[in-house]
Here is the input.
Amino acid sequence: MEIQLLVVLAVFLLITIPVQAQCGLSLLDCIHESSAETDPRNAPGRRDLGIGPSFDAPLAATFGETNTATPATESLLSDSSAIPVFICVVGARSPDSVSTELFRSPSNFHAEPMSDAEQAGGDARAPSIAKVRPTKPVEFNQAVYYKNKLELGLDFGVLPINIPFVFDVFLGDAYHMTPLHYTLMPIIGSLRWHVDDVGGPSILRGNWDLQASLAVTLIPRGPESRYFAFILGFRRNFVPRHGKFAPYFDGRVGLGEIDAQEPLGAVWAQGQDFTFTLNMGSGFRYNISPSRSISFGINWMHISNLYLSQPKYPDYGINVYGPMIGVDIRLGKHHPDAAQ
Here is the structure.
C-alpha cells in the first residue's frame, strides 16, 4: 500500500510540475487542463485534478454525489500522508479561486442558493431600524376632561339667602319677596357624561358634560319639610392648559314633589305638591387626580308650580342661594392615552 502511494505521488509531481512550467498557469488550473487532454472519458465541461481515472469522483462523494472511484484514488484520500499534498494544492490558490474551481462544474454537487447579501458582493448589511417617536403624553387636564367620560357626582349645599325670582324681568313681574324665608339643604346625586374633548379658544377653552340627577332637599326653615326632584342639566368646564383648578358653570331643570302647606293654611307657603325646579351655579373644580375631584361654588335654586295652583292658591315660589360642595369620581377606565 505504501509503495503504491509513493508511486502515485511521484507520477503526480512528474506530471504537474512540467505542465505548470510550460503553461505558466497556477498549479490547479494546469492540473485540470492536463487531465482534460489526457483523459478522454471526461465529459465536456467536466474538470478533473488529473490523478487516476477521475479525481472528481472522491470529491463528489464527499459532497454526496455517487461515483466510481478506483481503489488507488480511495487509498490516496484515505491515507493521512496524502493530506498535506492536497492542502498544498488547495493552498496554492486564494480561497475565492478554490471555491470557483470547486463550484465550477454543477455535476459535482448541488450548491446551496446564495443569500441576498452574498449576491450583492458579500456585504451583509445590518437591517434598517425604524425610528419610532414616543407618543406625546396627554396633558393632565385632557386626562380629566375627555369625550365619553362618565362620572358619579355627589353635591351638598346650604342655601339660606332668599332673593326675588331672577327672571321676573322677563315675565313682567316686579322684583318682590314675601315675608316668609326659607333655608334649603339639597343633596344631589348626578351621573355626568362628557360629550366632547377639550377644545375652544383662549379663556373659553373647555368641554361640555350632561347631567342626570336625583335630589333630596331638606327644608330646616319654612313651612314645608322636604322636596324630591329629578333634574337634567349641563355643565361647561373651562379647562386651562396648566393647573388643577377649572372654573365651571352649570344649569339644571327638573320636576319634583313637595309637601305643600298653603292648602293647609300656611300663609306664603307653596300652593300644591307638584312643582318644578330650576338651578344655576358656578364655581371651581379641583382635580386631585384624573379620576377624582372636588368642587365648591355658589348655587341658586328655584321651586314653584308654574302658576298651576292659581287662582285657588297663589304661586309664591322659593328662591334661595348659597354655597355648594361636591365630589366627582370617574366611572370606568382612564383616558386611553393618559399615563396613570
